[in-house]
Amino acid sequence: MKTAIYPGTFDPITNGHIDILHKASKLFDRVILAVAAVTGKNTMFNLEERTEICKEACSHLPKVEVISFDGLSVEFADSMSADAMIRGLRAVSDFEYELSLALMNKNLNNQIETVFFVPDNKYLYLSSTMIRQIVGLQGDVKEMIPQCVEKAMKKKLERKNAK
Ligand code: COA
Q1: Domain of residue 72, CATH code
Q2: Count of structural domains, the chain
Q3: Ligand 1 center from residue 8 Cα (angstroms)
């Protein structure tokens, strides 16, 4: 039984992340989408909201489980008896950051390998920041995020604007 964790901020989860989960499900028996509390980012959704949205967006993926965690991702991986950590590598610009993350995680726990997946072409330039901006400006994101994510974002913005 091979288990992988896919840690990230997921603010919000996009079709690019879901594409990585599809690919990982072909290689691993269990894929844990790990929603991080500690990310260094000022997020639109709190941890509980990000986790709930991810759960809804991944409900059609039988091998995927969504769990939030606080602390180091390698420690969480260890507590889940994971064999690998998954990350998506979109463009050359991701490489330096992803390499430093993978090397630091390896220093922290050399039992856990980082495995990179390359997303489909159409998701290469997708990011959560772009999605937040486009939705904020009422742009069309149908091809980029699941419907439930768009709904949650619109609700959040409506509440913010009503204040
Ligand atoms: N499709 C679409 N977007 C993608 C993507 C894909 N396949 N892969 C990455 N991205 C985007 C994300 O949307 C995000 O965009 P944004 O910056 O506009 O929000 C960006 O790429 C990277 O985000 P993410 O994959 O969520 O990673 P992160 O860098 O925000 O998170 C953690 C990094 C959570 C893995 C890291 O902070 C962590 O491990 N935290 C726990 C504490 C810890 O262990 N720290 C030590 C690390 S050495």
Answers
A1: 3.40.50.620
A2: 1
A3: 4
